[in-house]
């Protein structure tokens, strides 16, 4: 019953925490939308983390730890600290986790089904339209409520990830319930996004933003949390140490964990769970167990983190084949940019072409001008007007227009040339050489006339 009451309080405070996070983020006045979104996301997550996990962390690591002993109980504000039940805190932790996790999933599914329908009904009442007035499909879609985005979906999945990783040692069935919930969640989300709300316009995003860092933080926290659960909350290490000291037998273990009340503190002799002697001091077994628990946590988290790092090194984020293709695309893009700049500059007479590239550009210039070339059956023929601009026949009017025309006409030639070898002297026929020399002489005469006129 206490877990159910706690669940209702959690669901109520969840709404208040989201509004508080939005108000605090608005006061910060971030410069960009990305900074605002990251700040809001982190605040909402921190609030929800405390809201959903605080009671679970209390039961797992604090409840029953600082109780004291008969005659010397620990108190806070005149209230005695709460102790665990007879079966221990691990069972109570599993019950609390199951109620909060399953109850949260149930409420979220009901909200995703009911809230859009209620909003659609209010929307129709607001515009004073009935279902009979909405004849066409686009009219019906236009009167649906707006979609609120994927923030709630991300938050729900991240909190679920925390439930099934941070406390999986206490409730091993948590991943199974999460899987069953996600099967239902897929269909409910599809119904909500496609039929009950307006369809959103797809937008490209570089990544999932700060959610990735939050998931990484939860993964690291889960390793430490599960190590502490196994070490401090469960009876795994106490039983193991007891077996080591008693010939690997558990006979008398329960009686060994019960201590007698200190002398003179109780009218009757009573026993309580705690590794203490008759004076209320901790026994040597307690200190051995405490050292073993800390050693287990350190070794456990180092081994798990080491395995994670090893897998991260052995399994690359990008497959080798895909990485090779990405590098090749970048190389081809750079080559295309360099070739286009060289061709444009040479064709417009801005720079002199290096010797090793002269034949290749002459061949390309011949193709652009409509002259014969050994590659006429491969490359597309350019606009004949380009040859006039290159040869200087357009006079003084071909200044800015000529550059623009050359760029436009060169583009179709760039892509086929990326996969072909550069032209050499042997590749050129006598006819091509004559055409190239003709173009060169024409350009020289045009340049001289321009200098005289200037």
TrEMBL record:
Stretches with biased composition (Low complexity): 391-408
Membrane topology term: Multi-pass membrane protein
Renumbered residue ranges of the record's region Disordered: 375-454
Keyword Membrane belongs to the record: yes
GO MF term set: chloride channel activity
One Pfam family hit: Anoctamin
Subcellular localization(s) per the UniProt record: Membrane
Transmembrane segments: 6-22, 42-61, 157-180, 285-305
One CC-aspect GO term: plasma membrane
Domain Anoctamin transmembrane positions: 2-329
Family according to the record: Belongs to the anoctamin family.
Descriptive protein name: Anoctamin
Annotated organism of origin: Cacopsylla melanoneura
């Amino acid at each position: 019953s206490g877990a159910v009451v706690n669940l209702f309080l959690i669901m109520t405070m969840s709404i208040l925490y989201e509004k508080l996070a939005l108000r605090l983020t608005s006061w910060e006045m971030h410069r960009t939308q990305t900074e605002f979104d990251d700040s809001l996301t982190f605040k909402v997550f921190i609030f929800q983390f405390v809201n959903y996990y605080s009671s679970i962390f209390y039961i797992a690591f604090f409840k029953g730890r600082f109780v004291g002993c008969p005659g010397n109980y620990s108190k806070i504000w005149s209230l005695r600290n709460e102790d665990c039940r007879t079966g221990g805190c691990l069972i109570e932790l599993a019950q609390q986790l199951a109620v909060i996790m399953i109850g949260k999933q149930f409420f979220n599914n009901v909200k995703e089904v009911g809230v859009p329908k209620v909003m659609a009904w209010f929307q129709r009442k607001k515009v004073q339209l009935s279902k009979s007035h909405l004849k066409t499909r686009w009219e019906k879609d236009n009167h649906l409520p707006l979609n609120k985005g994927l923030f709630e979906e991300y938050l729900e999945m991240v909190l679920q990830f925390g439930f099934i990783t941070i406390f999986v040692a206490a409730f091993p069935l948590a991943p199974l319930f999460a899987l069953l919930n996600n099967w239902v969640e897929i269909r409910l989300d599809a119904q909500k996004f496609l039929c009950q709300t307006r369809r959103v316009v797809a937008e490209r995003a570089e990544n999932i933003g700060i959610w990735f860092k939050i998931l990484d933080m939860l993964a690291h926290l889960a390793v430490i949390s599960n190590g502490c659960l196994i070490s401090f909350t469960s009876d795994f290490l106490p039983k193991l140490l007891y077996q080591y000291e008693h010939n690997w037998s558990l006979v008398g273990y329960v009686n060994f964990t019960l201590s007698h009340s200190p002398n003179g503190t109780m009218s009757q002799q009573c026993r309580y769970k705690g590794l203490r002697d008759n004076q209320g001091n901790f026994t040597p077994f307690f200190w051995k167990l405490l050292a073993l628990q800390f050693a287990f946590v350190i070794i456990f988290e180092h081994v798990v983190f080491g395995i994670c790092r090893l897998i991260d090194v052995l399994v690359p984020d990008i497959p080798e084949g895909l990485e090779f293709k990405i590098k090749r695309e970048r190389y081809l893009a750079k080559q295309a940019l360099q070739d286009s700049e060289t061709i444009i500059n040479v064709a417009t007479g801005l720079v002199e072409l290096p010797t090793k590239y002269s034949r290749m550009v002459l061949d390309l210039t011949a193709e652009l001008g409509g002259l014969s070339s050994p590659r006429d059956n491969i490359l597309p023929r350019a606009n004949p007007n380009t040859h006039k601009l290159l040869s200087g026949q357009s006079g003084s009017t071909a200044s800015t227009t000529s550059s623009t025309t050359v760029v436009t006409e060169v583009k179709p030639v760039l892509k086929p040339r990326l996969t072909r070898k550069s032209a050499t002297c042997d590749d050129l026929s006598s006819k091509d050489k004559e055409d190239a020399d003709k173009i060169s002489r024409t350009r020289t005469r045009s340049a001289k006339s321009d200098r005289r006129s200037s």
